[in-house]
Design a protein that fits this description.
Helix content is 46%, strand content 26%. It is α+β, with helices and mostly antiparallel strands and 365 residues long. Bound molecules: adenosine-5'-triphosphate and magnesium ion.
């Protein structure tokens, strides 16, 4: 291989290893380099792009073309941190931080420009999570402040309704007081949930068998499962080790998940509970990985599954598609699992229609 060829493949290797999209253009704005990362983001192949004008390959990207013009004409670097690129084949939108820098020939004249396109999807996702956590925290402060103001009169209301119920003879009116009591209980549990979300109490950890928790929940839900004609499939791994958890809180998690499944199935269907050991790699420090053993508990139903907009809002407080839902079930479950250093993964089933909720809990030995 000649020295030039060596050099060329050396630079090509470097460009292929860079995670940022890199496009190099001549002064006439003809593309000379188009690395794999930009192929991936744009959905345009380098063989299609190289030799073409930037304008023809990125037609419609007026902001990118405008900034490139400015760079080539002025010799100054321009950037836009709020740019986005839409991949051709699946219309996926990549939030992009774009920097366009000029480069010169030996004589100091502008010879072209280098466009660096950094995929900000992950950063945006983290930012969004942070915003959500922040929202949750401020909501918690508000909830804590309001809790007493709400709970005291609510207690009075409930007490009065109960007294009334004992006095009233007419069945019809007793039904009304029943509604008052039921609804005050509902408000009370929402306030309690919000309080827990903002000021979680320390975990009371002990060694617990997950199958016992799941069994208790199925017992608790037995009536409704029967009434809704839901068949329960228990696919339990008998060798599953115990986990070190807060039993009360983890029960709350699976109760929320099972309730959602029942509500999704509506009438006639199948609820599948699977447990197994799961081996996972977790990143501990600066990229170092550790092998961890976790238990995986999966709850599958045969409901309608999730719409895309629902999936992206599952952990948004008060997001609910149900007329009687508070939209806190999964937010609380997510929080509890995080406290246990576990993970929750929610998606549509791949084997058939329906939802799958996977909870991973670490096995501490
Ligand atoms: N198994 C499921 N199948 C389909 N959609 C689901 C399932 N589980 C949850 N969802 C969707 O996610 C939304 C949020 O669920 P979440 O449990 O957080 O709140 P909710 O059930 O509406 O109210 P609640 O606070 O009473 O639990 C639901 O309104 C529903 O649209
Ligand atoms: Mg729910």
């Amino acid at each position: 291989m000649s020295y030039e060829q060596n050099l060329k493949s050396y630079y090509e290797n470097i460009l292929a290893s860079v995670q940022d999209g890199i496009v190099v253009i001549s002064k006439e704005q003809i593309i000379t380099t188009f690395n794999p990362a930009i192929e991936e983001m744009s959905g345009i192949s380098s063989s299609h792009a190289i030799g073409k004008s930037l304008e023809s390959v990125f037609s419609g990207e007026s902001r990118l073309l405008e900034l490139t013009d400015k760079t080539i004409n002025s010799g100054i670097t321009f950037s836009d941190s709020d740019f986005q690129i839409i991949r051709r084949w699946d219309r996926r939108v990549f939030p992009i931080s774009l920097i366009i820098s000029p480069f010169s020939d030996e004589g100091g004249n502008i010879a072209g420009a280098i466009l660096v396109l950094r995929d900000m999807s992950r950063a945006k996702e983290l930012e969004e999570n942070l915003r959500k956590a922040d929202r949750l925290a401020s909501m918690g402060t508000l909830a804590a402040g309001m809790a007493h103001e709400i709970k005291n009169p609510l207690g009075g209301l409930r007490g009065a309704a109960q007294l009334l119920q004992e006095e009233i003879k007419s069945e019809k009116y007793r039904e009304y007081t029943g509604v008052i009591i039921k609804e005050t209980d509902r408000i009370n549990s929402i306030v309690e949930n919000l309080l827990n979300l903002s000021n979680p109490k320390p975990l009371k950890l002990k060694s617990v068998n997950i199958h016992k928790i799941l069994g208790d929940i199925l017992l608790l839900e037995e009536k409704i499962l029967k009434r809704m004609k839901i068949t329960v499939v228990r696919d339990f791994d008998p060798s599953l080790p115990s986990v070190y958890i807060d039993e009360g809180r983890i029960t709350q998690v699976f109760l929320n998940i099972v309730k959602n499944a029942v509500e999704a199935i509506k009438k006639g269907g199948e609820l599948t509970l699977t447990t197994k050991i799961f081996y996972d790699y977790i990143v501990i420090e600066e990229g170092a990985k550790s092998h961890t053993k976790m238990v995986l508990i999966e709850v599958k139903d045969t409901g309608e599954g999730f719409e895309d907009d629902v999936l992206s809002n599952l952990f948004t407080p008060f997001f609910s598609t149900k007329s009687k839902g508070t939209g806190l079930g999964l937010v609380i479950s997510h929080r509890i699992i995080e406290e246990h250093k576990g993970r929750i993964k929610i998606q549509n089933r791949t084997d058939r229609k329906g939802a799958s909720v996977q909870v991973f809990l670490p096995i501490v030995v």
